[in-house]
Automatic annotation (TrEMBL):
Keyword hit for RNA-binding: no
Domain of life: Bacteria
Keywords, comma-separated and alphabetical: ATP-binding, Nucleotide-binding, Transport
InterPro entries tied to this protein: AAA+_ATPase, ABC_transporter-like_ATP-bd, ABC_transporter-like_CS, ABC_transporter_ATP-binding, P-loop_NTPase
Name of this chain's protein: ABC transporter ATP-binding protein
GO MF annotation: an example: ATP binding
Xref: Gene3D superfamilies: P-loop containing nucleotide triphosphate hydrolases (3.40.50.300)
Upper lineage: Bacteria, Pseudomonadati, Bacteroidota, Chitinophagia, Chitinophagales
Length: 254
């Protein structure tokens, strides 16, 4: 079956003054995949994402999201995407349920806060304030809020940075669940094990250019075919496996 393209980026360029941060990149994201943008700091990942999210102007190139051209109908694109808010957007006086109701109102969408919080294991925190949450709970809430407007695509920027292994694996499960329910996920991460576990395909971005784009398996096989040999013998478990085996998979923060 032909896969449907839900994001089409062609020859995207972004200049900040004399500096070209994004140098004519092209890529497609297919409907319902988990697509990763990987790359060192300063590679141009956030710039690229923010342009697609309509939050930043591009210099040139075309961006089409679910058939909608960014140059023609940015407002229509906003309606079908889910973006993580800066935590400063979470009014300190409101609890999680009230925040979700507020955002639902802003999007003009009926929303069931209990159901959404339940999906992210936050039902016990319905009446808590954002600042009272642990790191993992904050990340889960932030991802929950991207779903309020029932978007077709969500964008997650380093969603597991700073989390302990239990919280990180829990978030991986949740991201897979969101995808299973039909949402396309675009994610940035610096954790290659995370990209390997979650992403159907990933683009490796460096200095404003895409230098590789394939499935994690495809990228690894290509390197191996070039004769790459690991210095250290690969063992059947990682140190993280040891950690999880010893401390269990249960979330600790709750
Ligand atoms: P990444 O998300 O991959 O870390 P960014 O897209 O944030 O990369 O940044 C790409 C490059 O563009 C960096 O060199 C950064 O310093 C520069 N840059 C980002 N935003 C601005 C801005 N508003 N003005 C000038 N330069 C910027």
């Amino acid at each position: 079956m032909e896969k449907k393209k839900i994001i089409e980026v062609k020859n995207l360029v972004k200049k900040y003054g004399d500096f070209t941060a994004v140098k004519g990149i092209s890529f497609d994201v297919y409907e319902n995949e988990i697509f990763g943008l990987l790359g060192p700091n300063g590679a141009g990942k956030s710039t690229t994402l923010e342009i697609i999210e309509t939050l930043r102007d591009k210099t040139s190139g075309t961006v089409v999201v679910d058939g909608i051209n960014l140059d023609e109908e940015p407002e229509s694109i906003k309606k079908i995407i889910g973006v993580q808010l800066q935590s400063s957007g979470y009014y300190p006086g409101l609890n999680l349920m009230e925040l979700i109701e507020l955002f639902g109102g802003l999007y003009n969408r009926p929303v069931n806060p209990r159901e959404l919080l339940g999906m992210f294991n936050l039902e016990d925190k319905a009446r808590a304030k954002y600042k009272e949450l642990s790191g993992g709970q904050k990340q889960r809430f932030s991802i929950a809020t991207t779903l309020i407007n029932k978007p077709r695509i969500i964008f997650l920027d380093e969603p597991t940075t700073g989390l302990d292994p239990q919280a990180r694996r829990n978030l991986w499960d949740l991201i897979q669940e969101v995808r299973k329910q039909g949402t396309t996920v675009v994610i940035t991460t610096h954790y290659m094990d995370e990209a390997e576990f979650l992403c159907d395909r990933c683009a490796i971005v460096d200095s404003g250019e895409i230098i590789a784009l394939d499935s994690p398996d495809g990228l690894i096989d290509k390197l191996v075919a070039q004769g790459f040999d690991r210095k250290k013998e690969v063992k059947k478990a990682t140190l993280e496996d040891v950690f999880i085996q010893l401390t269990g998979r249960d979330l600790r923060e709750d």
